[in-house]
Amino acid sequence: MADRFHWQATLDEVYACYPEAKYRPVIGITGNYGEATCKLGEGYYQSIAAAGGVPVVIPPINDPATILNVLENIDALVLSGGADYNPLYAGEEPSSQLGGINATRDLPELLITRLAYNRQLPVLGICRGIQTLVMALDGKVAQDIRESVNAQSLKHSQDADRSEPTHSVQVADDSILSQIYQGQTTLYVNSFHHQAVKDAGKRFRVVATATDGVIEAIESTEFKPIIGVQWHPECLCEGKPLFEWLVREATTFHTIHKIHDKTLTLDTHCDTPMFFPKGIQFGHRDPKILVDLHKMTEGRQDATIMVAYLPQKYEGNPTAYADGIFDEIERIADQYHDYLAIARTPEELYTHKREGRKSIMLGIENGLALHGDLANVRHFAERGIVYMTLCHNGDNDICVVDR
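The structure assignment produced for this chain is given below.
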């Protein structure tokens, strides 16, 4: 019989192989909190390990820099179960049926959920976690299940052991959840909640309900790998497929990041300069524009071509107008020079990537920018313009749209 206290023997086994371990995706799990202790039920981390992932507990720290650095080092996220949310985060006053809240968890988990969503991380929300998804991503949570329509007939807070399923849920047959369970449209689940999703919002669709109409599972409507379930799969033998799905998605996420590390990605057209007159800030995450430094970072985009667009009936000096746009782009690059630079050649694109900086290239839409003078071709070439569309929305003096 082996001596279980001879730990060096296990270490010798590690040293006898190379690599010492193959890569497994890292799955962050939000920790519960109580009595000045970050805690987590063993089912969460054991289920992730059994599915082939590496579980890491994320303590409830509401410092955004800490959260962002956590997200840079995980491949997927589990939002764990727990107490009610403070309804003030949803702009609501507390119902008389509100249960105990966990103020330490609320803000950190709302932040990490939205920031993980921005970064395309795979997410599995469990019990409170499905409510976290909805709270963070523009849906609504009923403070008590009795506030939900037709939610009167089932017992949703079971007395049976956590490993015992106590009611059924009906699963949409065209859902990812059904695929995970090999086409099953009825699942048997456990139940430990008195709150429930009231409105999944536009980012999610409901894919499973209990027989009384309570929402039991949601999925992304935006093709993101995000699922929320109201039950606790980590306590059920039948829960393993959900964790296997999460580990597969996390593996894909990690693989894609490795590809981005080796590959330069260039967006060949960006309309951000059209919004300069509206006072947009390229270093702010701005909903009015599709490309800014935040979104480039979240999407692992290395470079974009910002274009000076000239309206067909522009009445001023179009060359000066285009130059003004390029002056503003150069000002932006100078403002964020540690993270951003103008690239005028392919070589500079790759140099900036090695330096850890994003690149902006310059383009022109509409030959009107030449102002009828072909000498301006040289002028813009010397500014580093990499392309020009001679015609755009109509004819000009050097280009006819239908020829």
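Interim note for the steering committee: The chain has a mean pLDDT of 93. Residues 240-262 form the longest helix (23 residues).
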